[in-house]
## 1
Amino acid sequence: MAQEPELPEFKLDESDLYREDVVTDRKTGGIRRMTPVTASGEDDPTRPVLFEGQASLLTPGGALPLNFELPGPGFEDALKQFPDAARAALEQTIEEINQMRREQQSSIVVPGQQAPSGGLIDPTGGRGGSFR
């Protein structure tokens, strides 16, 4: 009889816990404020509050999620940083998609086999070429 695969252990790192609050305008995106907490659930003032931006872009292939760091240090700072950080995340994502396309186009296709699709989203709307 085959040996049962060992399942991973799910244990939270008690020294790296955060409470999440999400602030959104319900249109463009949101900002996650991650407040450090101790193992007892109390705020941990010895570690900084972290901020992460979230947005999504509708493409012909579906929603493209964007997540990006906002250095802060406060919520108002993160709010001001949101537009530029979202644009930078989108530009990086587009470059990664174009790089995957280039790699896919340069891969060897053996006769009788279908080329790998890779499930790439076409941000150009099916027009081909680079997105820009």
## 2
Amino acid sequence: MNGVPGWEGTGCWRLIAGAWFVCLPLGVAATEPVERPIDPVERLHWAFQPLSRPSVPHPPEGLAAAHPIDAFLQARLHAAGLRALPTADRATLLRRATFDLTGLPPTPEELDAFLGDATPDAWERVVDRLLASPAYGERWAQHWLDLARFAETDGFEHDLPRPQAWRYRDWVIAALNDDLPLDLFLQWQIAGDLLAPDDPRALIATGFLLCGPDMPDINNQDERRHVLLNELTAAVGEVYLGLQVGCAQCHDHKVDPISQLDFYRLRAFFEAGDIFQDHVIATPAERAADQQLRAQRGALAGPLEGELKRLEDTARQRLRDQNPDLPPTADNLRGVLTAEEQALQHTLKQQLARLPPVPDLPKGRVFREGSSRPAHWYARGDFRRPMAEVAPAFPRIADLPGLSPGDGGPAKLRSRRELAFWLTDPHHPLVPRVLVNRIWQFHFGHGLVRTPSDFGFNGGEPTHPELLDWLAAELPRRQWSLKALHRLIVTSAAYQRSARPAANVDEVWSQLVAADPENRLWGRREPLRLDGESLRDALLAVSGRLSDRQGGPGVRPPLPAELVSTLLKNQWTVSPNVEDHHRRSIYLFVRRNLRYPLFEAFDRPDTNHSCPQRSRSTVAPQALVLMNGELAADLAKALADRLQADHPAAPEVQIASAYRRCLGRFPTPSEKERAAVFVQQEGLASFCLALFNLNEFLYID
């Protein structure tokens, strides 16, 4: 090449060398990559600092902050020369908290009870009531399922169903309703089979690792396993650590101090795991009882089956003796038996049929430790190019001194058990911060860090780092109780602030919006649009159609006719039980390649990936599905029928009741007057449909 002018300067030789390297035969080992040490400056990034518990600030002179959250926020507002908006009115607060904690609107009876309760702890008792409701777990489980990429099908071309996937969804709901400590909640999803092998709940929890898309029918199962392990490793990094570790599958992360070896060392924790599609999930006592029942049934069925076998053998022998050319069909065999033998055969079959069957033990889709396998890193992430072996290890940037658990044994023997304990160490620099930031985000619409799954260099910085650290340190002090964290947040003045200007605080509002348009100081609340699931559940609730049935396989309500005409056979088989069509949205079947139309219009996330924060778009299909959709029209008629049944021949009362059910308030005099004219001209069902389309119904102040 030295004889060719200009080659050295153009870099063409690098292109040829790179092409030659790519064309190396698969399996040829390249030189192990040199892992760049982490620069001490990189460790100064806020998210990698050791977790401490800051002192709660003293309120500025002349101001009071009885709540620690408010003390942190008030200090910043005071420093900026701003004041926060006052508390919202009681009706607004009840609607906000009820939707926030249960995903449902408050009933008129609940509204009356709260408005009429003058006791000092009225708000705290409302919060406790909502947290004790089964609807709480059904609401908050959806937040976690978004993160977990939960679906009931595999995705990809064939999108095959996963018959047992629903058990993971039900486990999440039950765990939240039971207030399972969050450290245990997180540990079981990483290593439940190792931490509590005899507890069915712990086995089901490992379904988190298997929630992502899969290709069970792919020709090369080695490729399938490689893709699956990479996917779940990336999900663990994103959901637990708030780091985009998946960006290091093929090369070192371009921005964060995460090497390709970091990725494959983290993946090595999962290398010995096996996928069980129909694994029996039962306690030892349940297994023993099952064996006993089967033995008892066998003792009764054995003699009957033996006598039936004797009669069949007799018939076969007679058939061979009498007419060897006849095939031994059921009719031919029965024909060679005597009348007495046929009667005996019939009696035996009846007796056998009357024996109660032994129900199968429940089965689930679990990730369970199997045989030991060597773990490798892969050149350019190619499953066909395994390189040197790697031992399980925690990502270096997140592994502060004193965090790593272990018994002094060889690193290659580390299991998911150690990973689970490391992730839930109370002093972990990332996991507690990531967790409380997510909870704050689900309550307020934004997190203290506005990139909830990216705490790395590409992510945002916390608006209130001291508050974030205080909450993160407070979580283990409150026994990792999520409900305790809810109470802490929801009882703060910050949570209860008004979201709208009022005559007496118009200047305060104007100053806040001008100085802090993105509300990073949390001086006001922001109206939040209902997601698709809460919207559908609210429509069902106010119309009186909502079913309270819980759990079980996902249900399939009817789809719009225009969509059904485009589907493949069996792509969406409508559930036969009509009551199932009115169950809460979390129980609707989740098909990766076919989103429920209402949910898709209102930004239901793609379940092929972890979703840390849903979009909140405002687009035409949302108005169309609420104005013209079959579901909205049907439920508007159901609400009208309910109002007429409750208040016959009383249009004014019907209108007032509709406002109370849909909007949580009475109509104003002008609203009553216009509504009466509208109902007289268009009918009560059309009026109910109009209420469904109001921003006041769709948004939570």
## 3
Amino acid sequence: MEWAEHKGIALAHIQPGKPQQNAYVERYNRRVRHEWLDLHIFATLDEVQQVATEWLWSYNNERPNMGNGGMIPAQKPRMAA
């Protein structure tokens, strides 16, 4: 919270027991759990970071997203140019 204050970022917390107030984050967290976190037994934090980095790159660069017409997310900025 101190970091956010230093950067001028206002934090808004959701109400306890109301995950629907932050549906995008909840959906992303569910996807992370189901697509890679539940599939591995990690020995170190470095191993977790490596798998997370690889998954995020694939998610942003290789995976079609139906929300933007079936394009991969990395294609969308190129289409706008």
